[in-house]
Design goal:
The chain has a single domain, classed as Sandwich (Immunoglobulin-like), CATH 2.60.40. The chain is about 15% helix and about 40% strand. It is built from 2 helices and 14 strands; from the N terminus they run αβββββββαβββββββ. A 6-stranded mixed sheet has the order 4-5-14-13-8-9. Strands 1-2-12-6-3 form a 5-stranded mixed sheet, with no helix packed on it. Strand 8 and strand 9 form a beta hairpin.
Length: about 180
Amino acid sequence: MIGLGRYLALLLGVAAMVSCAKPVPSATPTLAPMQTATIDWVEPGDQVSGYLVIMGEPGKVTFQWDLDESIVPGPDNATIDVPLGTILNISSAIYDGTYSGKLDTVWAEATYELEIDGHPVAVSAFGSVDIPNPMVGTMRAWNVVVVADKVGQFTIHDQGVESGDPYENTTTYRVVPPASSGAG
């Protein structure tokens, strides 16, 4: 057992060492500048999975709803065959569900995100296009167009909110040779 005198001497010695100690400069690590993630947005003229992505020209574009859905594995997923050579608008379209002429308001309040094979698309860089529709009047879509000029496939994922209702879809487009005419 340590006597009280020896204990006090030990405490005083420790206190003296602490009070006389010089601060040791801490080794401050050199940090690399903070790296900010940059997003490589798809813009008009870019290629994704070997397909050119452009802005469509009026009257020269096929819209996704003009094609037959070949396989429908779920309510929000589809696989669609696209004839080789198709100039295809891949954007979802919106319309004024109240049929009161407020498409501009519905469009301004809507949100939309689009990816092609996991690459985010800068939809605003493509502009929008109005499409007449006999059932709903005018529909509006982003003018994001894929030139389906080679056999293969690509998948789009889009999501957004329209008139307060969220939606999300995944569509795989299979670019296939045109069906043979059977002549020969």
